[in-house]
Amino acid sequence: MIDRIGMDAGGSLIKLAYEERGHLHTKTYNPHELKELVNWIQLVSPNAQLFLTGGKSALVQSHFTQKCFVVDEFPAAIAGTKLLLEMEKKKVKDEFILVSIGTGTSIFYVTKEKEVRLLGTGIGGGTLLGLGSLITGRNDFHHLAELALKGKHEQSDLLVADIYAPNEPPVPGHLTAANFGKAHENMKARVEDHVAALNQLIGEVVISLAQQAAANKQVEHIVFIGSTLSGNKALKDVLASFTSLMPYQPVFLDKGAYAGAAGALYV
């Protein structure tokens, strides 16, 4: 019997974490599937205590008759990250930068003694879905993630090499000079190229901010969590692609999308 359920009700998804027979299990629902979520909990564990976090937790709470506890979003995400790092046996130093890429992105400095939110940006999963739907005509995250893997961002992005050609550029030519800088003139660029460029833009903005935070705090590891990374290899590749230019070590958690729910569960 499940007696506790952690629930992270974010801007785009509702993530669940619960323990059964000593193992951590996870589930995901879309906001429009709230009725199905309520029915599932009533079916499997009607007396479970619910530990809610995330921006939509108050809205979700009103749909349940079970006893509910609301946990602050940022402490839950950080606690869940520490738990998952241990469960997944990821080797990370005691001090690290945590980057949570959900609908938007938040960046934290985490140590054994404290955690501080340093900054955030509106660039994140909401950007991917919003601009992605304008590019493709479809509001489907998994479709966008698949398209990005098939695309070549350099068909849509203006690279440093494009500007300096045929001469040798003063910085690596593969770096982006202007995101979507060729989208208006390269008629050979495909939809998947533009989606790849969108992932490139999101990844470049996020890693630029995260690495500046890491340099400021003099830490090596940057841990990435959030549902925007789930099944999105293209974005992960962008976030990990600058290690030869900047001193950081990227760490991706397998269940990173559920850090908030896991943190709420074990609060």
Commentary on this structure:
- The chain has 2 domains: 4-78 and 260-266, 2-Layer Sandwich (Nucleotidyltransferase, domain 5); 125-254, Nucleotidyltransferase, domain 5.
- The protein is 37% helix and 23% strand.
- It is built from 9 helices and 12 strands.
- The longest helix has 27 residues, at 191-217.
CATH architecture of the largest domain: 2-Layer Sandwich
CATH topology of the largest domain: Nucleotidyltransferase, domain 5
Largest sheet report: 5 strands, mixed
Radius of gyration: 20 Å
Oligomeric state, counting identical vs distinct chains: single chain
Mean pLDDT rating: 95
- Tell me the overall shape: globular
In order across it, which strands form the biggest sheet?
A: 3-2-1-4-5
Helix content: 25-40%
Number of helices: 9
CATH superfamily of the largest domain, by name, is: ATPase, nucleotide binding domain
Strand content: 15-25%
Outline of the structure:
The protein contains nine helices and twelve strands.
Annotation keywords:
five-stranded mixed beta sheet, kinase, 267 residues, Nucleotidyltransferase, domain 5, Type II pantothenate kinase, alpha/beta
Helices and strands in order, then pairings?
Layout: E1 4-9, E2 14-20, E3 23-29, H1 34-44, E4 49-53, H2 57-61, E5 68-70, H3 73-87, E6 96-101, E7 105-110, E8 115-121, H4 125-136, H5 141-150, E9 158-159, H6 160-164, E10 176-178, H7 191-217, E11 221-225, H8 233-239, E12 249-252, H9 259-265
Parallel strand pairs: 1-4, 4-5, 6-11, 11-12
Antiparallel strand pairs: 1-2, 2-3, 6-7, 7-8, 9-10
